[in-house]
Amino acid sequence: MAEAVRAARAVRGRAEGSRRSLGAFGRALPPVALLALFFLYPLVLVVRQSFRPDSGGTSVQPYADVFASEAFRQALWTTVWLALASTAGCLVLGFLLALVIAFVPFPGAKAVARFVDVFLSFPSFLITLALLFVYGSVGMANGAWTGLTGAAQGPFQFLNTPWGVLLAEITYFTPFVMRPLLAAFSQLDTAQLEVAGSLGARAPRIVRTVILPEALPALAAGGSLVLVLCLNEFGIVLFTGAKGVTTLPMLVYSKAILESDYPGACVVAVVNVLISVGLYGLYRVVSRRAGA
Amino acid sequence: MLVHSRGARWALWAVFLVLFLPLFALPLLVVLGASFATHWSSVLPSGPTLANYRSATRGEALQALTTSLLTAAGASLLALATGTWAALAGAALGKRAKRVLDALFVLPVAVPSVVVGLSVLVAFSQPPLLLNGTRWIVILAHTVLVTAFAHQSVSAAVTRLDPAYEQAAASLGARPAQVLWRIRLPLLLPSLTAAAGLCFALSMGELSATMMLYPPDWTPLPVLIYAATDRGALFSGSAVAVVLMAATLLVLFAVSRVRTRASYR
Amino acid sequence: MSIRFDSVTVAYDGNVVLDSLDLTVEPGEVMALLGPSGSGKTTALRAVAGFVRPASGRVLLGGRDVTDLPPYRRGIGMVVQQYALFPHMRVDENVAFGLKARGAARSEIRQRVGEALEMTGMAAYARRHPRELSGGQQQRVAIARALAIRPGVLLLDEPLSALDARLRSGMLAELARLHRELPDVSMLYVTHDQVEALTLADRIAVMDKARLRACGTPRELYRAPADAFTASFVGGANLLPVTVGADGVDLAGREVKVDTAGAVAGARATLCVRPHLIGLGAGPNQLTGVVQEIQWRGATHRVHVKVGEHDVMADVRELREPPARGTEVALHFAAADAVLLPEGVGHG
Question: Which sequence ranges are marked TM in the entry (chain A) (predicted)?
Answer without folding.
Answer: 28-47, 80-106, 118-138, 158-178, 215-242, 262-283
